[in-house]
Design brief:
The complex is a heterodimer of chains A (463) and B (226). Chain A is of the alpha+beta class. Chain A has 3 domains: 7-157, 2-Layer Sandwich (Beta-Lactamase), CATH 3.30.450; 219-300; 308-459, Histidine kinase-like ATPase, C-terminal domain (Heat Shock Protein 90), CATH 3.30.565.10. Chain A has 9 helices and 14 strands. Chain A has helices at 7-55, 150-197, 210-214, 219-264, 271-303, 314-331, 351-367, 417-420, 425-435; strands at residues 57-59, 67-69, 81-86, 90-95, 108-113, 116-129, 137-148, 312-313, 335-338, 346-347, 373-381, 384-390, 439-444, 450-459. In chain A, strand 13 (439-444) and strand 14 (450-459) form a beta hairpin. The model of chain A is unreliable at 413-419 (pLDDT under 50). With 226 residues, chain B is α/β, with parallel strands linked by helices. Chain B folds into 2 domains: 2-119, 3-Layer(aba) Sandwich (Rossmann fold); 126-220, Winged helix-like DNA-binding domain superfamily/Winged helix DNA-binding domain (Arc Repressor Mutant, subunit A). In chain B, the strands form 3 sheets. Chain B has a 5-stranded parallel β-sheet with strand order 2-1-3-4-5, sandwiched between helices. The longest helix of chain B has 15 residues, at 105-119. The two termini of chain B are 20 Å apart. Classes of the chains: A alpha+beta (463), B alpha/beta (226).
C-alpha cells in the first residue's frame, strides 16, 4: 500500500523545521548575550551600591575620630542587604541576611540565600577622618552589599520570551507565505497533469503547456510524456491498422465463402454442379483457414515472450526448407542454388520459428521469380550470421520498399491474392527476427531481382 | 441489362459474375482499377458493381473520375471498411448504394435491380408495357393474368425495351445492353429472338407491342407504357 503524501506539505515542514532550528539557536544566543549584559549591569549596580555605602560612612558627632553609618539620602533598593564594618569587626550597620562564607574583596559572588539567589560584593576601603591633620584617623571600612538576582533574571526571561513570541509569529507568517508561493510554483505541474489527462485513444495529441517548457526541472518530464505518447500512438495505430486490415481480409474471405454457397442455392442444380460448388467452397474455407492461422502466428510472435533457451541449427533448417520448397520451385520453373554452411549456425529461435522464417523467405522469393534461380547464402561474421535470399524476379517498386514488412501489405503488382498469399509472410519473418534480436532488410539487387538479408545473433556451439 | 463488376478478389469475382448472370444480367469483369475505369468509360453499362480496395486505381478515385467525365451509370459499392464516414464519403463521391462485405448474394442482386430501374425513372419492380405486366423480380410477363412463356433472352430484350419506353432503341444499343464481352454474338441472332418475341407478344387485337423501325431499331408501341 502506498501512503500518499503532499510535496507541498513536505517542503513547508522542512523549511519550517529549519527555520525553527535557526530560531532556537538564535534565541539561545540571545539569551546568553542578554544574561551577560544584565549581569554586567547587576555587578555595576552592586559596585555602585557598595560605593554608596562606603560613602555613607561619616564622621561621628564625637570628636574621637570614630565613624558611623549615615543612611540618610541613600536610596537603596528595598531588598538590598548589606553590612558595613570598620577596623576588622566593628559593625556600623547591617540589613538583611548575609552570607556566612568569606568573600574576596572587590569581587562579586553569586550565592543562594534563604532560597533566593543573591549577588554580593565586598568592598574594602579607607575612611580618613580629618585628613591632612595631625590627628587624622584612618579607618578600614569593609562593605558587603548584596542584591537579589531575580530582577536580572526576569529581564533575561522577558527578552527571551519576546524573541520566542516574535519567532513564532514569524514562523506562522512564513508557513502561510510558503504555502502560497509553493502552490504558485507547483502550478506548472498541475497544468502538465491536466494536459496529460486530456490524452485518450481518440485524441493522441499532447500539448505541453508553455510553463512546462519554461522550467528546467519540468522540461525532461514534458519531453518524456511527449515521446511516450507518440510511441504509444504509433504502436496503437499499428495495432488498429492491423485489426482493421485483418477484419478486411476476413470479411473478404467470408464474402467469398458466403457467395459460393449462396450461388449454389440460387436454383436447382445437377449433382455435378453441387459437387463442384462444394469443392470450390471448401477451397475457399481452407484459404481463410490459412489466413487465420497466419494472423494467429503473427499475433503469437508479437506478443508471447521469447524463450531464451531455445536453440536451433540454421544450417540444418535451411536445408530442410530448401528441400520442402523444391516442388514450388519446379512449379515456377526456378532452381534453388544453395551452398550449405560448413558448420552449425546456432540461433536463439525455436525450430518451428526458424523453419517458418526460412520457408517464408524461400516461398516469397519463388513467388516473385519467373524462371531463373533463387540463391540462398549464409555467412558468419563473429557473433552474428547473415542469411541472404536473392531472386531474379522483377524487383520491388521504390514506393513499396518502406511498406514491405507491414502486415497485409501486398505490393501492387503482387496484390493479386491468387499469387500473393495473405500478405503476412514478410511480417511474420520480421516478427521472428525482432524476437531473436536480429534484423531483416530487403533491397533491389543492382543486377536485377530482390535480395532479402537476415542478420541474427549467433550462439557459440557448445563443445 | 449489362453490369460491370470491378473486383480484384478472383473467387469473389467468379461467384458474383455467375450469380449476376444467373439473375439475367450480362456481366463484364475488370480485375483492377485501371481496367475498370477503361470499361466504365465506354458508358455501356446499366450498373457498375465496384470494390473499393483495388490495385491500379482505388474504387473511390475511379468513381470520382467517372462522375467527372459525366458518366451517370449507377454504382453499387462493395466495401469491407467500417465506419459511417467512409459511407458518407462514398455517397458524396457519387456512389448510389453500398453493401458491406460479407454481403448476401440475393441482396446484391435485388439492390442491383432496384438501382437499374430507379436510374430508368421507375420505382416499382413491375414494369408495364401496353397491356403487359413485367415482373422484374420473378422475371415473368403476364397479360390479363395470363403468363406468357418467354425464353431468358426474349425476356431480357423485352425488359431492356420496357426500361426505355417510347424511345427507339437501336440494334447496336440493344446488343450492348444484352451481352457482355464473353458472349459470342451475331447480330442476326438477336433478330431471330426478336421475331420470336414479337410473335409471342401479339395482342388479341393482332398487333405486336414491339414496333420495328427499319434501319433505326425497336420501340415499345406508343401509348402502351405508362
Amino acid at each position: 500500500m502506498t501512503v500518499t503524501s503532499s510535496l507541498t506539505r513536505r517542503i513547508i515542514l522542512s523549511v519550517l523545521l529549519l527555520e525553527f532550528l535557526a530560531a532556537f539557536v538564535l534565541i539561545g544566543t540571545i539569551t546568553i548575550h542578554e544574561r551577560r549584559i544584565q549581569f554586567e549591569a547587576f555587578d555595576a549596580n552592586l559596585r555602585a551600591g557598595a560605593n554608596a555605602l562606603l560613602g555613607a560612612v561619616q564622621e561621628a558627632a564625637t570628636s574621637d575620630g570614630s565613624v558611623l553609618l549615615d543612611l540618610r539620602g541613600l536610596n537603596l533598593p528595598p531588598r538590598a542587604t548589606f553590612s558595613v564594618a570598620v577596623d576588622g569587626g566593628h559593625v556600623l550597620g547591617t540589613r538583611g541576611s548575609l552570607p556566612t562564607v568569606d568573600l574576596k574583596p572587590d569581587t562579586s559572588k553569586h550565592l543562594a540565600l534563604d532560597g533566593r539567589s543573591y549577588g554580593f560584593y565586598k568592598l574594602e576601603g579607607e575612611r580618613i577622618i580629618d585628613p591632612g591633620r595631625a590627628n587624622a584617623v584612618d579607618h578600614q571600612v569593609t562593605v558587603i552589599y548584596g542584591l537579589p538576582e531575580g530582577r536580572a533574571w526576569h529581564s533575561v526571561f522577558e527578552a527571551t520570551r519576546y524573541f520566542s513570541l516574535a519567532t513564532l509569529a514569524f514562523l506562522g507568517i512564513t508557513a502561510a507565505l510558503l504555502t502560497w508561493i509553493i502552490r504558485r510554483f507547483l502550478h506548472p505541474i498541475r497544468e502538465l497533469a491536466n494536459a496529460a489527462e486530456n490524452i485518450d485513444v481518440q485524441r493522441w495529441t499532447f500539448d505541453a503547456p508553455p510553463s512546462s517548457r519554461q522550467f528546467l526541472e519540468l522540461r525532461p518530464l514534458s519531453f518524456a510524456i511527449e515521446k511516450t505518447i507518440s510511441r504509444l500512438q504509433r504502436s496503437f495505430e499499428q495495432q488498429r491498422r492491423f485489426t482493421s486490415d485483418a477484419a478486411h481480409e476476413l470479411k473478404t474471405d467470408l464474402a467469398v465463402i458466403k457467395s459460393s454457397f449462396q450461388l449454389l442455392g440460387m436454383r436447382k442444380r445437377t449433382v455435378e454442379e453441387y459437387e463442384d460448388g462444394i469443392r470450390a467452397g471448401l477451397n475457399d474455407i481452407s484459404r481463410m483457414e490459412t489466413s487465420v492461422l497466419r494472423m494467429l502466428t503473427l499475433a503469437r510472435l508479437e506478443q508471447a515472450p521469447m524463450d531464451e533457451h531455445q536453440v536451433s541449427n540454421l544450417t540444418e533448417i535451411i536445408e530442410e526448407a530448401v528441400g520442402q520448397s523444391r516442388p514450388l520451385a519446379e512449379l515456377r520453373q526456378c532452381s534453388i542454388v544453395h551452398t550449405p554452411h560448413a558448420g552449425a549456425l546456432l540461433v536463439s529461435l525455436s525450430k518451428e520459428d526458424a523453419f517458418l522464417l526460412c520457408s517464408n523467405l524461400l516461398v516469397n522469393a519463388l513467388q516473385h521469380s519467373r524462371g531463373g534461380a533463387v540463391e540462398v547464402q549464409t555467412q558468419r561474421t563473429g557473433a552474428r550470421m547473415v542469411l541472404g535470399v536473392r531472386d531474379h524476379g522483377e524487383g520491388i517498386a521504390e514506393e513499396d520498399l518502406p511498406h514491405l514488412f507491414d502486415a497485409f501489405y501486398r505490393g501492387d503488382a503482387s496484390r493479386n491474392r491468387e499469387r500473393g498469399g495473405t500478405g503476412l509472410g514478410l511480417s511474420i519473418c520480421k516478427a521472428i527476427c525482432d524476437r531473436s534480436g536480429g534484423t531483416i532488410t530487403i533491397a533491389n539487387h543492382p543486377d536485377g531481382g530482390a535480395v532479402v538479408n537476415v542478420e541474427l545473433p549467433c550462439r557459440r556451439p557448445i563443445e | 441489362m449489362r453490369v460491370l463488376l470491378v473486383e480484384d478478389e478472383v473467387r469473389l469475382a467468379e461467384n458474383l459474375t455467375s450469380g449476376l448472370r444467373e439473375a439475367g444480367f450480362a456481366v463484364d469483369h475488370a480485375a483492377n482499377g485501371l481496367d475498370g475505369s477503361h470499361y466504365a468509360e465506354q458508358d455501356l453499362y446499366d450498373l457498375i458493381v465496384l470494390d473499393l480496395m483495388l490495385p491500379g486505381r482505388d474504387g473511390k478515385t475511379l468513381l470520382r473520375l467517372l462522375r467527372q467525365k459525366g458518366i451517370h451509370t449507377p454504382v453499387l459499392v462493395l466495401t469491407a471498411q467500417e465506419g459511417k464516414t467512409w459511407i458518407i464519403d462514398l455517397l458524396n463521391a457519387g456512389a448510389d448504394d453500398y453493401l458491406a462485405k460479407p454481403f448476401d448474394l440475393g441482396e446484391l442482386i435485388a439492390r442491383s435491380k432496384a438501382l437499374i430501374r430507379r436510374s430508368a425513372g421507375v420505382s416499382s419492380p413491375e414494369l408495364r408495357a401496353g397491356d403487359l405486366t413485367i415482373d422484374t423480380v420473378q422475371r415473368t410477363v403476364t397479360r390479363n393474368g395470363q403468363v406468357i412463356d418467354l425464353s431468358p433472352t426474349e425476356y431480357r430484350i423485352l425488359e431492356c425495351l420496357a426500361h426505355r419506353p417510347k424511345i427507339v432503341v437501336s440494334k447496336k444499343e440493344l446488343l450492348e445492353h444484352l451481352y457482355d464481352y464473353d458472349w459470342e454474338h451475331h447480330s442476326n441472332v438477336i433478330e431471330a429472338h426478336m421475331s420470336n418475341l414479337r410473335r409471342k407478344l401479339i395482342s388479341p387485337t393482332g398487333e405486336s407491342i414491339i414496333e420495328t423501325l427499319r434501319h433505326r431499331g425497336y420501340r415499345i408501341r406508343s401509348g402502351g407504357s405508362k
